[in-house]
Amino acid sequence: MSKDQLFSSYDQLSSTWDEMFNTNAEIRGQYETIIAFLKNTSKETLSKKEELSKQLFMSQGVTFTVYNDNEGIEKIFPFDIVPRIITGSEWDKIERGIKQRIKALNLFIKDIYNEQFIIKDGIVPADLIYSCPNYMREMKGIKVPHDVYVHIAGVDLIRNNDGEFYVLEDNLRTPSGVSYMLENREISKRLYPGILPKNNVRSVSNYPNMLYKKLQELSYNSNPNIVLLTPGIYNSAYYEHTTLARLMGIELVEGSDLVVKNHFVYMKTTNGLKQVDVIYRRVDDDFLDPLEFNATSVLGVAGIMAAYRKGNVNIINAPGTGVADDKATYVYVPDMISYYLGEEPILKNIETYQLGRPDELEYVIKNIKTMVIKKTDGSGGYGMLMGHEASEEEIKDYLDNLKKKPENFIAQPILKLSTAPCYIDGQLSPRCIDLRPFALSGKDGIDICPGGLTRVALKKGSLVVNSSQGGGSKDTWVIN
To answer: Which residues form the Circularly permuted ATP-grasp type domain (predicted)?
Structure first.
């Protein structure tokens, strides 16, 4: 395919950082190899590769669930065949920034559930913590193994039009998406044989082994029995649960497969009860233990928190970590880095307005067309107001609801997410993207898988990358 054909639909967005083209409309060095390959490949062949990727996702059962879709809840995860490419120097800064951030957040969680120095010193307001729906008083004073609360984190990054990466949000409870990262790479190996080693693309396939070793480290047993606790087949990330359990060689269990006796957790087997040492749980806090949280829950295990308090089982991630990834808490993460580490943040926050403050609420209302408003406990792109897209009526209705409890909302300027080339209708076309790298913490420190999940807003002009709202993904190459 000629260059003219390939780029005939490539209209760079104004005031937007493009991952492939520099400001002089020249292809960035990291994209030269893959673009040369695409230019020397016919449109028919590229379309066949696109179709092959869909077939591979279908055969592997790579799906996600949309609960409010009348067409059915299971969907194949959309995949774009053109990889997103990050240089080694860019990745080095991302890696250092995420390690710094996770270290500070982990210290914050430990502090909040113990001495609360950061509150006493006036860095974080007490009412912000105690009013947070993800703050768990049941975690107060619990000693966790090796003082690690955040074992698995997914930190969402965006690149603004200044070329710098900013943290959009921290996912510290049950972060998802790593199975898509792994599957995307397997697809790329099939689509581009020989190109990954030629480009010195760093491997992500070791993630399950990295995770298993971290889980092993977090038990005082030298040969721990580790299980993955899933809510079941109707959960939106069930494919991921089955994939990770299989790749780590551990049992996938539901709440009904476990029982607590004498403050120890056991798994039911055909040979009787087998003690469980580590639980990688993908069940939300509220449903973890019906004796202490939601009494109607059938997803968790009665008595599991009592076993956890006594140190007889380790739960990954620790219950109550959500206090640190609440969108209201996000505002204070740079202060946490300064307070606990005595350092300046390597990765910056996006400017954020707390709408419980009357002056900030007034400013946001006046500038509503340039703002995105989010619920502090929201996720998945739901419950947001995109000011530049909303009608006057939609804005009025949203603000009427917001004003009932403004402290439950934050606002941020609508940013120019960077764009990357996507293969759409036979041409390359720019689409907005973000990035979710995955960090693993254990007693020996923090490791970050070199790449992560790049999510794509496949709808032209859209800034919403969530799969449940029309987004897709692409493989992420970190090259040396």
So the answer is: 83-457
